[in-house]
Description:
- By secondary structure, this protein is of the alpha/beta class.
- It has 10 helices and 23 strands.
- Helix 4 links the parallel strand 13 and strand 14.
- Belongs to the metallo-dependent hydrolases superfamily. NagA family.
- Zn(2+) binds at residues 132, 198, 219.
Amino acid sequence: MNGVRQAFVGAQIHDGLALHVDHALVVGDDGYLSIQPLGSLPADCPTQKLGGGLIAPGFVDLQVNGGGGVMFNDEQSVAVLRKIAEAHATTGTQALLPTLITDTPERTRAAIDAVEQAIAENVAGIVGIHLEGPHLSVARKGAHDAKLIRTMTDEDLSVFRHAADRLPNVMITVAPESASPAQIRSMSEAGIMVSLGHTDADCQTCHAAFDAGARCVTHLFNAMSQLGNREPGLVGATLERGDIYAGLIADGIHVHPAAIRIALAAKPNSERVFLVTDAMATAGSSIKSFLLNGREVFRQDHRLTLADGTLAGADLDMPQALSVMTETVGDEMVSAVARATSTPAELLRERGDVGRLGPSSRSALYFEDGFSKPKTLSSAGAV
């Protein structure tokens, strides 16, 4: 094997799909990474010995509302997107969808413009946009502003389809009450990742939306019709379908660990349950409160709530979510890491090398002890 600049040895390696033991993460002379058996390394290969632990790809987060003390809803600009991405990069997120929570048509268009500009300027980590609303159900609004929730129009649909022509990835959360099967089908055919959420729809209606092209569910269990004995709701429809992906806020607050275990046991292709942070301005910041559509959100005991106690996003990062999944829920480490890397990447229309360690990777995460704050491994060494 020629052209080896450095090899990291002594840790298990997760490539996003599977775990490799007795392998090295090799940095080539071109700066790209590869995974090689220890026995194939040249005797004179420069090595850096790691003290056990785990090497993994950078995380992929499809629901990021803010970070670094700022919210995307407050200002739709490249500067804000850069600050959000930088805050999440410190905890290992390599690719994210900045998420605009239910807002006005003007801010929706401004958000699309800002993401397009950020991608043109190569802002690291920004790979598209997630529009969570405004076409939701007031009955399951959560922290969304009821005054801004509305039914999707032909003009809205045109804006979304045009966004899909301009951006590599567009994710839109809708409620079937506010977006028809025909509109869902039109968005799906345009390459938009349609996700159901903030809905009070019955199970049959949700199945019809899935059949029309919705592929995903936004923060499973939260802000949706629940599983009941006579009406299974969106939770039941999601757990019945093996073809549907589902985001999950694994902070031990939004969803009880037992409910997560039940969902993973019940759902066909349960590997399609993936992790999101639903992070707000608090991510990577010490702030104790912030504004969401003019309403104050308070941070206390790892909870983010409005004045009335309604949960408003999560005070969470991906390493914390992985700790909850592995230590509290009991998910296998190999499965949990995939839920934060390759699984959400599967939903992206254009994903490049994100979510996996492959021939085009230039950096990886290193966790020395559990899922604490990671170091970055690259041609520069361990940073």
